[in-house]
Amino acid sequence: MFYPVNIKDYENPQREYEEEVALLEREDEVYKLVLWNDDVNTFDYVIEALIEICEHTLEQAEQCTILVHYKGKCTVKTGSLEKLKPMHEKLLARSLTSEIV
């Protein structure tokens, strides 16, 4: 059986490749703000900080705090470096251990 082929679909395979590369490059610009566990701060203190600094809902902050406690760390926010750096600095100012990766 013969299926008609649109030759325009095969005219520029380079363009499709370039679009895929551009998408991957944009994905590389996404950073993670990771909060680490400590033996000093209370659950309530960490929850309050995540709500105020990272704009979490109460439920998000509680879930992240539980993950930090039991897993040792949790990604609390993703985004551009410009967006995450002020949040990271505010967490550090509250004696919370975080990093941007």
TrEMBL record:
InterPro entries: ClpS_core (IPR003769), Ribosomal_bL12_C/ClpS-like (IPR014719). It holds the Pfam family ClpS. Keywords: Hydrolase, Protease. Gene3D superfamilies: 3.30.1390.10. Residues 27-93 form the Adaptor protein ClpS core domain. GO terms for molecular function: peptidase activity. It comes from the Bacteria. GO terms for biological process: protein catabolic process; proteolysis. This is ATP-dependent Clp protease adaptor ClpS. It comes from Kaistella daneshvariae.
